[in-house]
Amino acid sequence: MSDQADHILQSIHLVQKLRSGVGQVFKDLSDGISEYSEDPQNRDDTENQGKAEGASASSKESKSAQSSKESGSDKAEDQKHRAILKTLKKSLETISHDFSDLEKTGASIGPVQLFSNIDNLSLDPHDKNAVMHSQLLQSYKWTNKMHELASQAVSILSQNTLKRTQVPKFTNAKKQKVNMLAACQVPQASVDQLILQLDQTYPDSSISIHRPLGGCGIMQIELGHTLRAVVVLRGLMIEWVKVKGFGESFKNEDGQFDIWTASRYQVFQKVTDNAEAASLRFYAPAMPQLAIKSFVLWLNGYKTLFSAPCVKCGKFLLNNIPPTWRDYRSREPYHDVCRP
Amino acid sequence: MGVSCVFSYPVPEGLSGAQVVEVLQKQVETLGGIKAGTFLVDCETYQSVMLNTPKTLHILHNSEHPASCFAILDSGATLVADTLFNGLMSNLKNYYQARKGAKIESKGQRFQLSDFVLKIGSVSLAGSMKGVLVEVEYCPSVIAGDCWNLLKELLQSLKINVADPPRSLKPKMDEIYTPAVTMLQYLDHFNSFRTAAAMSQPPR
């Protein structure tokens, strides 16, 4: 481990050296090489220091350039050029040397031992991140727990054989898929046509379809002045039912459909429960059109929600609530507890 | 907002209004009613000054609709306005003047009984108690004709027997109910309380 750290430290130094070398070359190229015009005293200083090989070499060169200066100006000019080139060459050589050094050291550094991200986070000394670590741990525990509970739920739910949404089993997945396709993958046009047909069948209620989120349709039913209902359709399969009062709205403040909020009245909460049960009762994936038709026909029985007495006890109110249950065949009104 | 019916509850001889209210409140609580605040309906009457044929204008407020002010003429024509309308009336005092000692109000406890709201109000005219008004509201419905039987049955369980819907509600049984109809019913009762009070007072 410490060996690794030494290597890394070394290579960092090498990188620094390389960078300063390269930086010097570019500086020389842009500013011109200064040693050439330096006076001999300075030159000696640099020589004594022995900073870099290239520097000393170039100073030697410039020495000779100095001597040749005396002989003739033309020659001197030529030598100047040569000196510059030589200096440049030297420094480039140094760079390439440094680079190969760095490569060697780099090769000796093995891959860092793999930590998980969370371990790295815990090593982070920064104060701000200290909270995050504990939070992550907590969520990790939470996820684990959820996983555990979910697997328990699966084992309990799998004991129940009555299923609406089929979980594909390995044996007959294909068969079920075909079955589901018939009900779910219906072209929008035929759904629209069915809704239009239903709307015409019941003149005193208005039935319309909206598609705020594409594929799935929201069928809105307004039953006289009694109630409003939304039915979410996947293809022609009823996925969700909610019933509210005529005075209530299914749109939220932003004007978007809100299919989740329950009615604030107990009557319609009960009716919603019963309608959900009915949507399961009328579930028929093989004949989806018939399922919707019979559901709407049954729901139409609620037109007399407030005005019809219970068939069994003959009263309007029981526990201050009118009869909220309708028979699936005869659509006769019953109180919850008076059901046959 | 639902359908409301207002009924006058007779005060039997030998009992005070306050006692009757107490008995009624107990009955509602036995039925399962839960106290849900108080309510107040008040009515002020204005008389036209300039016109040859005097006209009466009633201004009503209801704590259920605190931002609204209901102006009702004798003919039954109703205007529902913001509470700013009160300020307008004070500007119209050259034409309409408030009748003195005619302020009548019904106030009391409000009860919630599943989807019903029951209000038991004691009526006071110029400070003295005149009677008891019971308002029953069925919130989920908007058509009075639909839920009339429900209301009737609930009132029966309170030992209030009614045969017919209130006079001002009768022609509007199959329409969508509006709060203005409640105020019309209150006004009907207020007017009959006033005439009763005028009758009992010895003429000066």
From TrEMBL, chain A:
Domain of life of the source: Eukaryota
Main localisation: nucleus
Region span, Disordered: 31-80
Transmembrane segments: none
Keywords of the record: Nucleus, Transcription, Transcription regulation
Subcellular location: Nucleus
Biased composition (Low complexity): 51-70
GO biological process: regulation of transcription by RNA polymerase II
Alphabetized GO MF terms: transcription coactivator activity
Sequence ranges of Basic and acidic residues compositional bias: 40-50, 71-80
Keyword Hydrolase applies: no
Family in the record: Belongs to the Mediator complex subunit 27 family.
Record PANTHER family: 34 KDA TRANSCRIPTIONAL CO-ACTIVATOR-RELATED, MEDIATOR OF RNA POLYMERASE II TRANSCRIPTION SUBUNIT 27
Identification of the protein by name: Mediator of RNA polymerase II transcription subunit 27
TrEMBL record, chain B:
Subcellular location: Nucleus
InterPro entries associated with the record: Mediator_Med20
Keywords: Activator, Nucleus, Transcription, Transcription regulation
GO annotations of cellular component type: mediator complex
UniProt feature coiled coil, ranges: none
GO molecular function (one): transcription coactivator activity
Biological process, per Gene Ontology: regulation of transcription by RNA polymerase II
Family listed: Belongs to the Mediator complex subunit 20 family.
Record note on quaternary structure: Component of the Mediator complex.
Protein purpose: Component of the Mediator complex, a coactivator involved in the regulated transcription of nearly all RNA polymerase II-dependent genes. Mediator functions as a bridge to convey information from gene-specific regulatory proteins to the basal RNA polymerase II transcription machinery. Mediator is recruited to promoters by direct interactions with regulatory proteins and serves as a scaffold for the assembly of a functional preinitiation complex with RNA polymerase II and the general transcription factors.
Database matches in PANTHER family: MEDIATOR OF RNA POLYMERASE II TRANSCRIPTION SUBUNIT 20, UBIQUITIN SPECIFIC PROTEASE HOMOLOG 49
The protein's name in its UniProt record: Mediator of RNA polymerase II transcription subunit 20
Organism name: Elysia marginata
Gene name of the encoded protein: MED20
